Automatic annotation (TrEMBL):
Gene3D superfamilies listed in its UniProt record: Aspartate Aminotransferase, domain 1, Type I PLP-dependent aspartate aminotransferase-like (Major domain)
Signal peptide: none
InterPro entries, per database record: Aminotrans_V_dom (IPR000192), Cysteine_dSase (IPR016454), PyrdxlP-dep_Trfase (IPR015424), PyrdxlP-dep_Trfase_major (IPR015421), PyrdxlP-dep_Trfase_small (IPR015422)
Record field: catalytic activity: (sulfur carrier)-H + L-cysteine = (sulfur carrier)-SH + L-alanine
Protein name: Cysteine desulfurase
UniProt superkingdom: Bacteria
Cofactors named for this entry: pyridoxal 5'-phosphate
């Protein structure tokens, strides 16, 4: 719970606070054993290597994978780039004639930009629309797969702005039927929904440490071994991580990521139930105070902590946030927050520009208390009334 003089943090899609148990697990690898995990010639190096491998197994356990299928990266952005560009470039080098890469208009920017960048290398980007609820129409995907041989389908598990959960099992099955690889950006899904790489038939899956109450600066890419998925590395170096991601592994970050994954695997269902209760409490309070408040995205097929809300009247999200400095929320993806244009995700689900500009993303998390959501709902309602009054006064002048 936030202290009375501290802002209420409701931006858990941008990043989550570090779980104290994660910090405790990391601390010895900064203070006591700082050895390079590749320095296996001595005892401290071997101990660091063993800690990294334990963390690898913990991350694998969160998604039903084998430890040796986990490649550590700097985060989900790097993992997404490695999955998409690595798969495409390896296939092209082997003379594979498939050039089509299918993704969604609501994907994270790093996925969309990776797919679009490959157009300059002769690949065919296909960006499918979603429905007003944010979900993919499976018939659209089926038709796109039938149009031309497809190398890769990339669809995120949970949208980072509107929180909707895609039908990964059905998407994976369609990709397999068409002979395509299936990649999912699961940064927002891991720890929030059950994920099993076999059940969804994923070939590649991206993860991020700081989205599951772990440290920033580390993520992972699951790379299927059977049947083996081959990737071209993004950069050259010492050949760490099976030659796919060179560079010295940060032992403390890996250990923290592993501990965060272990906690998420053990407590994810309990977390989701508690967070859903806080979400419902917050939404009920805000709806009572703000008539006409609209929820974006499918009302049921969404993660427990997400609310993407459009406020009524001639107001802007920026004005509401300015009037409620004690509440930490956002207008969308942290990676795109500096952009002047309204969220491309909201535009993709058909929200008019004016309404998109009046929309806030709420991210409730593991450490959000009932007092936090009550305080935040009251503050945002008061901020909306203030913004509405100021907009009306400006219009009258």
């Amino acid at each position: 719970m936030a202290a009375p003089n501290r802002p209420v943090y409701l931006d858990n899609h941008a990043t989550t606070p570090l779980d104290p148990r994660v910090l405790a697990a990391m601390r010895p690898w900064w203070e006591e054993n700082f050895a390079n995990p590749a320095s296996v010639e001595h005892a401290l190096g071997r101990a660091a290597e063993a800690a990294v491998e334990e963390a690898r197994a913990q991350v694998a356990g969160l998604i039903g994978a084998e430890a040796r299928e986990i490649v550590f990266t700097s985060g989900a952005t790097e993992a997404n780039n490695l999955a998409i560009k690595g798969a495409a470039r390896f296939a092209a080098a082997q003379g594979d004639g498939r050039k089509r890469i299918i993704t969604l208009a609501t994907e994270h920017k790093c996925v969309l930009e990776s797919v679009r960048a490959l157009a300059a290398e002769g690949f065919e980007p296909v960006v499918l629309p979603v429905g007003p609820d944010g979900l993919l129409d499976l018939d659209r995907l089926r038709a796109a797969l039938a149009e031309a041989p497809t190398l890769l389908v990339s669809v995120m598990a949970v949208n980072n702005e509107i929180g909707v959960i895609q039908d990964l099992a059905a998407i994976g099955a369609l990709a397999k039927e068409a002979g395509a690889l299936f990649h999912t950006d699961a940064a927002q899904g891991a720890g929030r929904i059950p994920l099993d790489v076999e059940a969804i038939r994923a070939d590649l899956l991206s993860l991020s440490g700081h989205k599951i109450y772990g440290p920033k600066g580390i993520g992972a890419l699951y790379v299927r071994r059977r049947p083996r998925v081959r990737l071209a590395p993004l950069f050259s170096g010492g050949g760490q991580e099976r030659g796919l991601r060179s560079g010295t592994l940060p032992t403390p970050l890996a250990v923290g990521f592993g501990e965060a994954a272990r906690i998420a695997a053990a407590e994810g269902a309990l977390d989701a139930g508690r967070i859903a209760g806080q979400r419902d409490r917050f939404l009920a309070a805000l709806r009572a105070a703000v008539p006409g408040l609209a929820l974006n995205g499918h009302p049921e097929r969404r993660v427990a902590g997400n609310l993407n809300l459009t406020f009524p009247g001639p107001v802007s999200a920026q004005a509401i946030m300015a009037a409620a400095p004690a509440v930490c929320v956002s207008t969308g993806s942290a990676c795109s927050s500096a952009e002047v244009e309204p969220s491309y995700v909201l535009r993709a689900i058909g929200l008019p520009e004016e309404r998109a500009r009046a929309t806030l993303r709420i991210g409730i998390g593991r450490f959000t208390s009932p007092a936090d959501v009550d305080r935040a709902a009251a503050a945002l309602a008061a901020a909306w009334r203030q913004a509405l009054s100021e907009a009306s006064r400006d219009a009258a002048e």
